[in-house]
Every structure is written in structure tokens, then in C-alpha cells.
């Protein structure tokens, strides 16, 4: 009888222990479910960030995307914030609607990608981060040469491609330089620097050129200033770094196509190449890159100061009517 009571007591203890263990597990489960519901509600309250990692119909050459209406609104809002910083730092002086010539040239430096758009990622390098590092060094080098600089972004934020070009147009920059890093996928042996420009500008950019040079027509207008800027930058940066010269190339990238000033996009090296990526991580090589680009920009601007229309193929106006006998075809110059 005593043994029976002992077994009964141990049975009751076991039941209570199991009950409390299950009660603790149930409480933990309820707590976990509550946290999950809270996270879902919190996510719904957050605005969606446009990123460069997903494909969409609005994909741009340099890696930015238009992520529907929400992404477009976000890009515009951030672009406005960045452009407010632009206007706040560099003011365009005007008198009677006419732009007053600045004492020093103004260059807009654009660090490629940013925010949710990380760009290429290879060998421990995220393009948006290194592009910003190089752009800030370029700013410092240009300022040493007596050139005013405005950044499209000075921190890790997303700015749409259209807003980057619009900033340069708004402050009436003398030149625009976009800093990027290149990648060749699995072709790890590809290396070197290349610089892009655009001959055929967007319609708003062409209209701005027409107003600036007081042209009656834009027929035949061709802007080769970007090509000359690209040549100067490519020559100086390759000489300064000793990197492989992949030349200058024409491409209608949004940031160089939409700017009314001479504009280039510099691919400062291939992060998909392990040796070049290792160089790009060093401070000394970064300074050489920034210094080479800065010297190329300064060389170009010096030539433009002497002749602002240098590199512009302006429309030909109708000449005066010549009187006298017609000139025979065989007497016309072939040059």
C-alpha cells in the first residue's frame, strides 16, 4: 500500500512537470508568433527601396532601375534632397537673367551607384563604395588645382541617373565626371581603364546649348567637347597609373547623354581582375587615379577657357549671295 502511494505521488509529480514544460513551450510559441506578426506589420509600413539587383523594364545602362511608381517617387525625393545640397553649396549667380561668369570653373563629380544600387561586386570590392572613395579623392585633387567641385552624392544614398545629369545642368557646370569601376564577369584577365562620352546629346541638353550660344537652329549641331574631355582624361590617368589604356568610347549613358556640359564616365579599372582589384584597394593607387583624372579635366578646361566653343560643331548659317559667273566644278577644292 505504501509502495502504491509512492508510485501515485511520483505520477502526480511527473504530470505537473510535463504540464509546466508544455506551458513554457506554449508561451515561447505565442511570443514567437507575436514577434512575427510585428515584423510583418513593420515591413508593410516601410517604403520600398529601389535596388539595382533586380531586373525591371526600367533598367538603365549604369545599373539604376525605375522600380514602378514607388521607386520613381523615392528616386525623385532623394534626387531633390541631393539637388538641394547642390544648390546650397554652389550658387549660380545671375543678373537680369544672364549668367555671370564664375571666377573659377565648376566641375560636378558623380560617384556611380549608391544606396540600394551597389553596382558590381568582385574580389571584396563593392563598386558603389570604391566609386565614392575615388570621387572624394578626385574632388580634393581638383580643388588643389583651383577648380570648384560639386558632388552628386557624398554618402551612400541612391540618386537617379536623370537627377545626376539634371544637377549638372542646374548649376551650369563646366564639366561633369562620373566615376565607376568595371567588371568582365568570368573573363578575369581583362584589365585597364576606359573613358566614355556621348556625341548626340538629349533634346533638353541641345536646347540648352542653343540658348547658351544663341543659335538660330540646332540642325548640324554636334557636341564633341565630351570626346575631347575623354581624350584628355584617358591620356593623363593612364600615364599617371601605368594602367592598360583601353581607349575612349562613345556610348549614350544617361549621365553623359543628358548633360549640356562636356561629360565623361570613367571606368577606373576591372574589379573582376584580382591583380587590378588588389591595386584599387591601395591608397597610393587611388591617389594616382584621382590625380590623373584631375589633370585631364584641368587640361581640358584650360583649353575651353581660351575658346569656349572648342569642340562644338556649330550649325552653318547662310552666307551672302555672291554675284558673278558660276564656278566650274573642276575648279572647286576637294579638301
- Order of strands, main sheet, comes to 6-3-7-11-8-10
Alpha-carbon distance between the two ends: 128 Å
CATH topology grouping: Aminopeptidase
Radius of gyration: 30 Å
SSE sequence, one letter per element = HHEEEEEHEHEEHEHEHEHHE
Uncertain runs with pLDDT below 50, 5 residues or more?
Answer: 1-5, 43-76, 82-99, 318-335
The percentage helix is 40-55%
* Annotated CATH architecture: 3-Layer(aba) Sandwich
Strand content: 5-15%
Query: What class, by secondary structure content?
Result: alpha/beta
CATH superfamily, please?
Zn-dependent exopeptidases
Tell the overall outline: elongated
How would you describe the overall organization of this protein?
- By secondary structure, the protein is of the alpha/beta class.
- It has one domain: Aminopeptidase (3-Layer(aba) Sandwich).
- Helices cover 47% and strands 15% of the residues.
- The protein has 9 helices and 12 strands.
- A 6-stranded mixed beta sheet has the order 6-3-7-11-8-10, sandwiched between helices.
- Strand 1 and strand 2 form a beta hairpin.
- Helix 6 runs antiparallel to helix 9.
- It is elongated.
- The termini are far apart.
